[in-house]
Amino acid sequence: MTISVEHRNGHSELPLDTSAWHRAESQAAYDFRSDYVTCPNLSMLQSIINTSLGDDVMMEDSTTNDFQAFMADLCGHEDALLAMSGTMANQVALRSALTCAPYAILADRRSHIITLEAGGPSTLSGALIVGVEPSNGHHLTIKDVQRHAQLRDDIYDCPTRVISLENTLNGTVMPLQDVQEISRWARSQDPPIFMYLDGARLWEAVAAGCGTLKEYAACFDSFSLCFTKGLGAPNGSMIIGSKTFIKRCRWWRKAVGGGIRAAGVVAAPARVAVEQVFLGGRLQATQMMAKRIAQRWESLGGTLEHPTETNMIWLDLDAAEIDKEVFADMAQQVGIRTIRREIVGHEGRLVMHYQISDDAVSRLFGLFTAVLGERKCSNGVEKLQ
Ligand SMILES: Cc1ncc(COP(=O)(O)O)c(C=O)c1O
Q1: Where is the Aromatic amino acid beta-eliminating lyase/threonine aldolase domain (predicted)?
Q2: How does DSSP classify residue 384?
Q3: How far is Cα 109 from Cα 102, in angstroms, rounded to an integer?
Q4: Ligand 1 centroid vs 382 CA: distance in angstroms?
Q5: pLDDT single digits (tens) 104-125
Q6: Ligand 1 binding pocket includes 96 (Cβ within 6 Å)
Q7: Which end of the chain is more exposed for a tag (fewer CB within 10 A), N or C?
């Protein structure tokens, strides 16, 4: 196959080899490890061919500038900044929010910024991280935050300057009302405590009908959104906030090497992902499928580590006395991929995304029956088909 391209000196036929894309797409269809294993679709790849190629360090790329303005508007904030990854967005935003040490960040003990970002807040921001266990076992509430925030600034103290929430966390939704309560309280302090959200999967909370993007966004001074999680873009995240804050983020993004040149190749497919998958309403079907998978596991006698509120299913393999390596091996044998050692402690996590095929789900159901069905039978419970 070729594509015809017109240029200054006439026109050329360029070879177009889509075999790598077909391979990647069919692998994604059987991969339950995360919602970032998706393959960019053809509209996304097409948008890369058509994008502007201005320099974003000099803020001259029209596709990136337009996309940033579009995202700020969608969220009801003043400004936005493209970052290369969710980790970069979180770390740049936290570094920009922390201006005068000593300072502490209060966050859910399980949050990505504490457990999965290579210690970034301590190395890049020099912040004390106060990881709080949610007392209700699900999400942080105002009581948890008030109990653990440091409001004093005596000589021994390290004051809480940022409250960093995460939504969704482990696929569970932080209710809007709890976020609003924490936000009102943080903003009433003197000085106000900066409200930050790792919103890598905020899309999912919105798709689940738990609040609008603007309602959640109004509770935060800044937050990140990821275009690779569930939406299928090849790269990119966005930091949203005020004009003054985004100006600071632009400095820090540059300092960590995140200022990029032809940023349109990142911004263009990311915008397609937001428009087609999030605004196009594709996440709801994925969440319904996740609930069906969770129900199937439970109907066979399995239990879940966390409730399935969006697109994640957390099989409790320990409770079912299933060896994690054996589970991953059996999954591989039936032709699907689950977490093996990529993230320790996440081996029972299955993540639905819009490219998972019906055939992959049937194979998964077969795997459930293989690991649980026989056990139910041996316990004297009726054998399931
Ligand atoms: C909640 C959350 N925040 C941030 C990130 C980091 O994103 P990235 O992998 O693009 O750095 C992830 C990655 O999975 C995540 O799950």
Answers
A1: 31-319
A2: P
A3: 21
A4: 42
A5: 999 999 999 999 999 999 999 9
A6: no
A7: C
Whether the Cβ atoms of residue 143 and residue 149 lie closer than 8 Å to each other: no
The CB of 87 under 6 Å from ligand 1? The reply is yes
What strand order describes the sheet that includes 222-226?
79-83, 237-241, 222-226, 194-199, 160-166, 104-108, 128-132
* Confidence check: pLDDT of 326 > 90: yes
Distance CA 20, CA 312 (A): 28
35 CB under 6 A from ligand 1? no
> According to the model, what pLDDT value does residue 5 have?
80
- The residue to mutate among 33, 34, 38, 87, having the most atoms of ligand 1 within 8 angstroms of its beta carbon, is 87
Q: Determine contact, residues 221/194, Cβ cutoff 8 Å.
A: yes
Q: How far apart are CA 266 and CA 310, in angstroms?
A: 27
What's the pLDDT score for residue 375? 61
Half-sphere exposure in the Cβ direction for 153 (13 Å, CA): 11
Q: Closest residue (by CA) to atom 13 of ligand 1?
A: 86
